Structure formats: C-alpha cells, structure tokens
Amino acid sequence: MASHTFTLPDLGEGLVEATVLEWLVAVGDGVERNAPLVEVETTKASTELPSPAGGTVLELHAAEGETVAVGAPLFTLEIAAESGIVGTVPAEAPPTRRVRLRPPAAR
Amino acid sequence: MAEWTMQEALNAALADCLADDDRTLILGEDVGRNGGVFRVTAGLQERFGEQRVFDTPLAEAGILGTAVGLCMHGFRPIAEMQFDGFTFPAFNQLAAHVSKLRTRSGGALNLPLTLRVPSYGAIRSPEHHSESIETFCAHLPSIKVVSPSTPSEAYALLRAAVADPDPVVFLEPKSRYWSREERVAGDDLVGAGARQSGADADAERGDGYASRIVRSGSDVTLIAWGACVQRCVQAAAFAAEDGVEVEVLDLRWLKPLDVDGLVASVARTRRAVVVHEAPVTLGLGAEVAALLGERLFGTLAAPVGRVGAPDMPYPVAALEDEYLPSPDRILLAIQRTFDAVAA
Hints:
heterodimer, A: 107 residues, mainly beta, CATH 2.40.50.100, 4-stranded antiparallel β-sheet, 39% strand, extended, B: 343 residues, alpha/beta, Rossmann fold, 7-stranded mixed β-sheet, 5-stranded mixed β-sheet, 36% helix
C-alpha cells in the first residue's frame, strides 16, 4: 500500500488551469480505475476526470469552486499496488522488441 | 550549445519569419492570444501585434480561403489547422483553389502560403486528432508537402517552406513536439534543409528539396518522414544488435520527392522498406515503391516493403500502439526483404 498524490493533468490545447465543479467521490471512498472522480471546467469545456488508478481516497486538495493550476495537487489515493496510471501524458517509453533478424546469407 | 525542443524550434522559426518580412502573417484558431494549443505560436502576437498574428473563427475553410486572398494581395500568410483531422473542412480550398490558382491565372497569381498542420498520432488523443494527411495533399498538383523529424530540421524546413514561392503544406509531427536536440547554430541551421541529400551526403543540392541520410547502412534502406523517422532509428538500433546494418533515409519533402536521393541509397542497399502511419493502401509508400521499381528493377534484391496502418480509421488511444508501426513490424518487413526469392 502506498499513498500517491495526483496533480491536475495537462488537459491539452495549452490550457493552464481548471476549476473544480464537483467531486464525485468523498474521502474514504473506494474507487475503481477509470471511474469518474471529479468534474472540472476549463475555459474550453467541462470534463470528468477518471481515476488514474484504483484505490481509496485519502485527501481532496481543492474545494468545489476552487481553481487549480495544471501540475498542482488534486487528490491523494491510497493504492494497493502499482496498477498503471491513465489520463497522464504518456512519457516516451523505451522501445521494445521480440523479433530477431536472420541476415541474408549472401551479401 | 543549449538544447531545444521542436516546439521551441518552430516558434523560433516563425518569429524569425515574421521579423524578416513584413508581408508574413500568422492566422488560425487560438494562434494569437492563446499562443496555440501546442504553444508553437506562443508570444508571437505579443511581440508582433494583432495585425500580424491573429485569431480566426473555428472555420478551417475560412482560414485557408483568407490565406489565399492574402496571397492575391501580396502577403505571405502562414495558416494553421489546429489538428490534422480539421484540414478536411478546408480541403475544398486546397483542391479547388490552392492547387489551381496559379495555372488558372496563367501564372499571374502565386500563392506563397504555408499551411501548418500538427499531424500524425501517438499522443493518446481523441478522434480527428491523429490523422496522416500527406497523401491527400501530395496528390494535388502545385502543392508542396514537407514534414520535419527533429527540432533543427523543423526550424530549417519551416523557414524554407515560408520562403518558398509555392503553397507548402507543413506537417508537424506532434508526438515529437517535446523531443529535445542540441541546438544548431545560426547560418548552419538555415542551410540544413538544403543539405545532406541521399544522393550525396556531402554535396549541396541546388533545388533545396533533398532528403537526408539519418544513419548509414549497407543491408537495407528504411524510408520515412516526420514522426516515423524516429521509429526507424529505433528499429535500426535493434537490427544492429543482430548484425544487420540499416540505412535510414528521411525524405523530408514528400513533394517534390527526392527521387535521386532515394535511388542512390537503395542502389547501394538493394532493399528498401517504407514506413508511415497512414494506411498502406495508396499511402505514400506506394508511390515510393513504384518509383524504386521503375528505376531499380534490375538492382532490387526484393520487392520494396511497406509498413503502415490497416484499412481502418485511426483507433481509440488504448489501441494506437497496435496501429502504429512498431519496431517489431518494421523488423519483420526487413526480414521479408531478406527472405524474398524471385519466382
């Protein structure tokens, strides 16, 4: 078990902040990965953020109506194990391979 | 020298274009006050004013139509489509006017416009935000198409596109916007776009539409542009572990194609695989394969391979890694060129 604090993700299109409209969970609630967690509003649209992982809600870092900057803490989850995080910008993963080449016999 | 990202390189190129020529204008959705959804035009309206860098309504046909009109009155507009998939609403302008106006006017009207399009996939985006439109654009007469693969290439090729007397579609690999690279200095940068032809890596080509050899190898040539160049470089590194020396050729310009550069590289390696994100059927790989077949029929040791997408729409984010050319799919295509036996 480990607690993990998630920040407001980059919502794309150059947006730098969002306002918390409504929390869809409360402290102590168990959440599934990808379950709706919070509704936020940007200058462009309002959107639900899914939970990036399954776990238990430990803390909500912004009240409803409060504006949060991209990268600022949004909520803290207690997570059972490393279960993968969605909704974040994918970091460039090192490439992997399975195929092995058999070079041509005669060059 | 410091490093820079492709986003910073493109921003610097646009700033230098605006500073060098008063006729240069930037227009598009959110390019002004917001600075662009990928920050490519950040700070430009502040620096050059609302007359030169301005926001438009969300109407792509209007954006491109306005750019055509500006050209007819002596300006050199740089228009932005916010995402690849939103070029389609502007396609009538592209096909009916951008492609034809010079011919229609008997050469009286030139269209020195640049159409910037954040392109390709791999950023986990929703529908309409991951399209490969190069074939659609390159198929239209009188339109040039170019797609950079690194930050310094992006700088040099955008400067070249804006300076070009013809309309140029500039396809930016959005998955590479935040890729970093050592910054190339001053004059070297502007000249970079016109050097390193596949025909002769050391020679300058007169026409400035040369491809470049990213990595030299003797066994097979991988041919790509934009975001797929990096995929080919990764596949080439894996191949080297198996003792296979892969040449990687970055086409840069998809129209005009550097046929001499392509032919020179594949004449050495006798095997070629084209890699793109677009569907294989009628993708640009088909044109490259046909050209190589015409020019190197007696030299090729295997049919030209093609790695691209199946005939289906770009999938949801969770499946895009299956859709995009992976190192394994590129390696398998290389293996097929080794295993080919003439009937």
